[in-house]
From TrEMBL, chain A:
It comes from Embleya hyalina. GO terms for molecular function: NADH dehydrogenase (ubiquinone) activity; quinone binding. It holds the Pfam family Oxidored_q3. The lineage of its organism: Bacteria, Bacillati, Actinomycetota, Actinomycetes, Kitasatosporales. It catalyses: a quinone + NADH + 5 H(+)(in) = a quinol + NAD(+) + 4 H(+)(out). This is NADH-quinone oxidoreductase subunit J. It is a multi-pass membrane protein. Its EC number is 7.1.1.-. The chain crosses the membrane at residues 20-39, 46-67, 73-96, 108-130, 175-197.
UniProtKB/TrEMBL annotation, chain B:
It is a multi-pass membrane protein. The gene is nuoK. It is found in: Cell membrane; Membrane. It comes from Embleya scabrispora. Its EC number is 7.1.1.-. The lineage of its organism: Bacteria, Bacillati, Actinomycetota, Actinomycetes, Kitasatosporales. Keywords: Cell membrane, Membrane, NAD, Quinone, Translocase, Transmembrane, Transmembrane helix, Transport. This is NADH-quinone oxidoreductase subunit K. Pfam families: Oxidored_q2. NDH-1 is composed of 14 different subunits. Subunits NuoA, H, J, K, L, M, N constitute the membrane sector of the complex. GO terms for cellular component: NADH dehydrogenase complex; plasma membrane.
Length: 330, 99
């Protein structure tokens, strides 16, 4: 083996640490990407995509693209994905993916196309016979770096000062026109977003009086929406109210919660306890609730500290508990 | 490890993103898959730049990020506008201009 070949073999290798990092994080990134595609809820997809993007940021950092790695975290996961989540909360939480195929066999064809495309890309990379590279970011200390793109002295100095300096030098000299176009693009995008999201009010805003008169005229829901009733066990927003016959009132639950499938249905339990209440009679309420916790909330529960301090174990009543707590505070 | 593995990973991520664009119906998820494809391209750019010891790859990745940010802003506002008029974020429902 010639020394030249030896050198090439040395240059094509990354450090073992980077290899280990790559294999671990590549698996995480792939799992995140697959979860982005296959998660049922869009919020989960967004979180999976954040995972993938963080892995990519670490890859950028590992490959010497320090500036890009930080920008990836700040701009992509910090700004863009949060914008996605914001719009999801605004729009898409209640929207489930429709399983209806508008084009016949589209899913199968899409999966087949994706698979074929992946095989094609992978084969193309494998076929490209990339055996050695000009350089790697993690070179051995002795070798002097070469910069084929810019050979004038100033650029060389800028690149050798670091990643950010080199990028700045390139952006503000060689790519200055593209950079200026970027600013025009950003302004256009901002104006476009404002135009698209803006809504002109065509009719004057309705006052509270007009709204209430409209409700009475429609005669659909004149009274407020149903709240948990007399026999209600919960007044949480995700527990539907019960109508007098024990059935669930659909109106008492927010539509978003229903779309998310986050309703806690305790109607069976509630009906059961109502029946128990009615059989036990109305004279003793505490006995009638079967699965309520046995000790009432007001009863003092002697703590270990209180027992330790209190010489008389028999004084477990409310007065003793109050005195004990006062002692503990002082 | 050979740095070409980064390219393989990039190809796989791009493929997964493309398949997601074709498979999913929720416009926002489709959009996230487009972002995944853009990110995969960025990884390839950075890797190529490293292979050739050249900052141009990183600069192109940087511009891709800027364009992606613009695209997200405009695209999400389009999704919101469609949602307002049609009460749906599904790409199948925006079929008013279909012949």
């Amino acid at each position: 083996m010639s020394p030249g070949m030896d050198f090439a073999a040395e240059v094509t290798k990354t450090s073992t640490g980077e290899a280990l990092q790559f294999w671990v994080l590549a698996a995480v990134a792939l799992i995140g990407a697959l979860a982005t595609v296959f998660m049922k809820k869009a919020v989960h997809s967004a979180l999976a995509l954040v995972t993938t993007m963080m892995c990519l940021a670490i890859f950028y950092l590992a490959q010497g693209a320090v500036f890009l790695g930080i920008v990836q975290i700040v701009v992509y996961t910090g700004a863009i994905m949060m914008l996605f989540l914001f719009v999801l909360m605004l729009v898409g939480v209640s929207s489930v993916d429709s399983l209806k195929e508008t084009l016949k066999g589209q899913r199968i064809a899409a999966a087949g196309l994706g698979l074929g495309f992946g095989i094609l890309l992978t084969a193309a990379i494998a076929n490209a016979s990339i055996t050695h590279f000009t350089a790697l970011a993690t070179k051995s200390a002795g070798s002097r770096p070469v910069y084929p793109a810019e050979t004038d002295d100033e650029a060389l100095r800028a690149v050798s000062q670091g990643n950010v300096q080199g990028l700045a030098h390139q952006i503000f000299t060689k790519y200055i026109w593209a950079f200026e176009m970027t600013s025009a693009l950003l302004i256009t995008a901002a104006v476009g977003a404002m135009v698209l999201a803006h809504r002109e009010r065509l009719v004057p805003r309705k006052t509270q009086r007009e709204l209430s008169e409209e409700r009475v005229r429609d005669n659909k829901q004149v009274a407020p929406l149903p709240t948990p009733g007399v026999y209600a066990r919960h007044n949480a927003v995700d527990v539907p109210a019960l109508l007098p016959d024990g059935s669930v009132s659909e109106l008492s639950i927010n539509g978003t919660l229903r779309a998310r499938g986050q309703i806690r249905d305790v109607s069976a339990e509630a009906v059961h306890s109502v029946a128990a209440l009615e059989t036990a009679g109305a004279d003793d309420d505490d006995e009638a609730w079967p699965d309520e916790s046995d000790a009432p909330a007001s009863a003092p529960v002697p703590t270990a500290r209180q027992e330790h301090e209190d010489p008389d174990p028999g004084s477990g009543d409310e007065v003793g508990a109050g005195a004990g707590s006062k002692e503990g505070r002082s | 490890m050979n740095p070409v593995n980064y390219l393989y990973l990039s190809a796989l991520l791009f493929t997964i993103g493309a398949a997601g664009v074709l498979l999913r119906r929720n416009a926002i998820v489709v959009f996230m898959c487009v972002e995944l494809m853009l990110n995969a391209c960025n990884l390839a750019f950075v890797t190529f730049g490293r292979m050739h010891d050249n900052l141009d790859g990183q600069i192109i990745a940087f511009f891709t990020m800027v364009v992606a940010a613009c695209e997200v802003v405009v695209g999400l506002s389009i999704i919101i506008a469609i949602f307002r008029s049609r009460r749906s974020a599904s790409v199948d429902d925006a079929s008013l201009m279909k012949w």
